[in-house]
Design brief:
heterodimer; A: alpha+beta; 6 domains; 21 helices; 26 strands; 24% strand; B: alpha+beta; Glutaredoxin; 4-stranded mixed sheet
């Protein structure tokens, strides 16, 4: 080995002659340098520090590398798909193969001598340090880190570290590029996630490419369009139109994805979809472009089916409108009834009115009051049926006789409308269990309905006949008939006001609804049939023929009205009411007294000992009708008096409460003279 | 094997972008990536970083790519390091694993004292 002097010197002067010495000096120095080089070369070769030579043959330079024993391994390492790196004790790269240099996208020469850490993401330095420590302590370590090439994107890699021996003596590192794998994993994860979102979404979700072609659909979207929509243009699979909030079958403007693909976002737009199978669907549409690197690569469309909500909304609005219309009709009907009442009243006041005029006015008053009473009774019945508060007083009765009676009662009404009434009821009794008052109401309502909707010259046919376990009561007319839609809704409350039927025929449109409610309370059915508009209608009541029903015995013939004079006390705070009723009863031949309060009534009753007390329930002065009844019942003098409650309430609750308080009977106001007559007819004078 | 024939300056000496000539201009002649070539380069980088930081420039010449470049400095054995600056020109043959000898050959020791 050469010593330092040989290498570092070369500037010493060895001769004296200025010129020749100088040349000689240079020659010597050059020789010396060559000698040193030669010595240095030999030293290096002997030391094994050289493994290639430049040979000059025939004026051409060639490089010959020594074939060393490790060559096959070197080739192996060079050809591996993994990066291979050897690190010195200080962490500097002693060697790396070509593959590793490629991962860093730098020449391999640039890597040698650099610390491997300088090619790692700074956030991974701590992890790298830990891996080195673990490799030294345990003989091996591996983990995932990210390479940071100086001039390219980061590369996720797996590293396996193996130290060369004990202590800090350097190590080999095998580096596996995970980019593809990571990309694959990411794609897979994204794919799985989006797939499950699409599968489970309750909405129709459609993903389109930049050309508007469908590339993904959710399960619901497939159902909505009813076919495999993949790779078809969105606009043709989902022909949407802006609904504009108008009626469902009046679309206004086509919806195209073009605007969305041009960057516009749509939120909660109401659109209509015409489905090939079935009616239009009402949808809520949201859409947004899909961006990648600020470029639109497609769009996502969400369609929520709101057809049902829309239909429900429409129904609600409709029933609200029906109710409004009904109230208007009700007001109209009441005012129509009040007009003649006012006129008749003025006629009665006039001294110059003739006997015929007075009679006509009285008939007018009677008709209009009857009409109004029925309107109000119907209204109350409707609300009672709706609340399930109607109580049937069931008994066994002959429905044939009942139909004949009701028909006879309506004959004059029908004939007034120039309608012919035909009866087809067998003479054999048809015993039926039910509330005859309510069944009469049903048949009456059907007859009134027929009268209302049949033009003059028409015919109304009523029949009653047993049919197996049932009895059928049929009311047929030759009237205006019904379309199937009208027939279907004929029994809805307030339906008349919106049907095609002529409003001029009057009424509240409650009759049929009431009739069906009452029939159903009896466990029966009421149906409407018509061959169509102008072809007449047929209403059929089917009631069960149940002779073993818990009915009371058939009602006997009513006793004829007796004209016995009774002592009657009227307790009523409404002076007009008390007075008019008093006059009527006196005209009937009774003795009548009136009291204005409960206390006065009780006192008068003890004094007069009346046969009948007609008592209002709502009385002023601290003692109401219930208390009056209780007091009279408790007093031996008046305990056997026939007590009749007069009340503004017509429901069962009021009735049963009155009976509980001690009343024999409960009559709802307004009370007709006929009703009172009938009540009085059954009272035996003391 | 695609080592650069003549690498660009790898460790610029200037700290503010001004073109200050490096105090050490070094050329390493290698033959592709023979083990000694790689070891020599590794050693050279380490020594320069430790002792000449910011004051040197390394060129790597791969004679496998162009053997004719050997003539300029009359290279015979590989690896060979040529010290161009400071003058005079001087060669250090081998893998540069004897750090002390390399430092003397580079004239680092003389400068240090």
């Amino acid at each position: 080995m050469a010593d330092r002097g040989e290498i570092s010197t070369g500037k010493e002067r060895t001769g004296r002659s200025p010129v020749s010495t100088r040349r000689t000096d240079l020659q010597v120095a050059d020789l010396r340098r060559r000698l040193e080089e030669a010595e240095e070369t030999i030293r290096a070769i002997r030391a094994g520090e050289v493994d290639a030579f430049v040979m000059t043959t025939a004026g051409r330079d060639d490089v010959f590398a020594l074939e060393i024993a490790a060559d096959p391994y070197r080739r192996l390492v060079e050809n591996m798909q993994q990066g291979a790196v050897t690190l010195g004790p200080d962490g500097a790269v002693l060697f790396c193969n070509q593959r590793f240099a490629e991962m860093l996208q730098v020449p391999a020469m640039e890597v040698f001598g650099r610390r491997l850490q300088s090619y790692l993401m700074e956030s991974d330095w701590a992890l790298w340090g830990a891996l080195e420590r673990e490799a030294i302590e345990r003989g091996a370590a591996h983990g995932e880190i990210v390479l940071e090439p100086p001039r390219a994107s980061p590369v996720p890699v797996h590293v396996a570290l193996a130290p060369f021996g004990r202590g800090a003596v350097g190590m080999s590192v095998m580096v596996t590029d995970l980019s593809d794998q990571k990309r694959h994993e990411a794609v897979l994860a994204a794919e799985t996630l989006s797939k499950s979102i699409l599968e489970q979404a309750a909405d129709a979700i459609v993903v389109c490419d930049a050309a508007g072609k469908i590339i993904r659909t959710s399960h619901v979207a497939e159902e909505l369009c009813g076919r495999n929509a993949m790779l078809l243009p969105f606009d043709s699979v989902f022909p949407l139109a802006v609904s504009g909030g108008g009626p469902i079958d009046a679309p206004t403007q086509r919806v195209s994805l073009r605007e969305v693909l041009e960057g516009k976002t749509v939120r909660g737009l109401e659109v209509l979809l015409r489905r090939e199978d079935g009616g239009p669907a009402h949808l809520l549409m949201s859409a947004a472009p899909l961006k990648q690197d600020r470029r639109t690569v497609g769009c996502v469309v969400t369609l929520t089916d709101i057809t049902d909500q829309k239909a429900a909304e429409r129904l609600l609005r409709e029933s609200d409108r029906k109710k409004d219309e009904f109230l208007a009709v009700l007001g109209h009907e009441l005012r129509n009834a009040l007009g003649p009442v006012r006129n008749a009243n003025q006629i009665l006041d006039r001294a110059d009115a003739g006997e015929d005029d007075l009679r006509a006015a009285r008939a007018m008053l009677d008709r209009q009051v009857t009409h109004m009473t029925r309107l109000i009774d119907d209204l109350l019945d409707v609300s009672r049926i709706a609340q399930g508060k109607i109580l049937l007083r069931k008994e066994l009765f002959d429905i044939g006789a009942l139909v004949r009676t009701v028909a006879a009662d309506h004959r004059s009404l029908l004939e007034a409308g120039d309608l012919r009434l035909e009866l087809s009821v067998s003479d054999e009794p048809i015993w039926t269990a039910g509330d005859p008052v309510r069944i009469s109401q049903v048949v009456g309502n059907l007859l009134q309905n027929a009268a209302k909707f049949t033009d003059p010259g028409g015919r109304v046919t009523v029949s009653a006949e047993p049919a197996g376990d049932s009895v059928l009561v049929e009311v047929r007319d030759t009237g205006i008939g019904m379309s199937p839609e009208v027939a279907a809704s004929a029994f809805d409350f307030f339906s008349q006001s919106e049907s095609s039927r002529d409003r001029s025929r009057g009424g509240l449109g409650l009759g049929l609804a009431l009739a069906r409610g009452l029939v159903e309370l009896h466990g029966g059915h009421l149906r409407a049939d018509s061959e169509g508009p102008g072809l007449g209608s047929r209403f059929t009541v089917r009631l069960p023929l149940d002779r073993r029903a818990d009915a009371t015995s058939p009602r006997g013939h009513r006793p004829g009205l007796r004209r016995a004079a009774l002592r009657i006390l009227i307790v009523e705070d409404n002076q007009d009411m008390a007075e008019s009723l008093g006059i009527l009863l006196r005209l009937e031949g009774h003795r009548v007294e009136t009291a204005r309060t409960g206390a006065a009534g009780v006192e008068l009753a003890r004094k007069l000992r009346p046969d009948v007390v007609l008592c209002d329930l709502g009385l002023p002065g601290g003692m109401d009708g219930y208390s009056v009844a209780a007091r009279l019942r408790a007093d031996p003098i008046t305990c056997r008096t026939h007590l009749v409650a007069l009340s503004g309430y017509a429901d069962e609750d009021a009735r049963s409460r009155a009976v509980k308080a001690g009343f024999d009977q409960h009559l709802s106001k307004p009370v007709s003279l006929e009703t009172i007559d009938e009540v009085l007819a059954h009272v035996v004078p003391n | 094997m695609n080592a650069r024939e003549d690498g660009p300056p790898e460790a610029p000496a200037a700290d503010d972008g001004a073109r200050v000539p490096p105090e050490w201009d070094l050329t390493l002649y290698v033959a592709g990536q023979t083990p000694k070539s790689v070891v020599a380069l590794t050693n050279l980088r380490r020594i320069c970083e430790e002792h000449l930081e910011g004051r040197y420039q390394i060129h790597v010449v791969d004679l496998l790519k162009d053997p004719g470049l050997a003539r300029a400095h009359q290279i015979v054995a590989i690896p060979t390091l040529v010290r161009g600056i400071p003058q005079p020109l001087r060669k250090i043959i081998g893998d540069l694993s004897a750090t002390e000898r390399v430092l003397v050959g580079l004239d680092v020791r003389r400068q240090d004292g």
